[in-house]
Write a structure and sequence with these properties.
Number of strands: 6
Radius of gyration: 14 Å
Shape: elongated
Oligomer: single chain
Strand order of the largest sheet: 3-4-5-6
Number of helices: 1
Strand content: 35-45%
Order of helices and strands: EEEHEEE
Largest sheet: 4 strands, antiparallel
Amino acid sequence: MKKYAIGNYEVINNDTSDNKIFLVKFGGTPLHIQNKNFYSKELEADSFEFLFQIDEHGYPKDDDFLQGNYPFSYGALYIYAQMNNEGITNPVVGYWQYS
């Protein structure tokens, strides 16, 4: 497992982090709020792969970190891209989920 500290919180890069709290998860399999394949079906058909997700559950709990509402309605944003040996191309917001 790789852990990277940013400020007072961790960014976890771990495909088995389903019980972990994180703000950003890079690579592997996305951890969904609603686990429905229609979110990624068309992306994967167009050769897009999961790149990273931003999950608001992982925001630091400091009272002054976030002012006002959560931007994703206490949800997560999933970024996909086309990847090959030359690198990452065409990153797109794949979808957004919220609870």
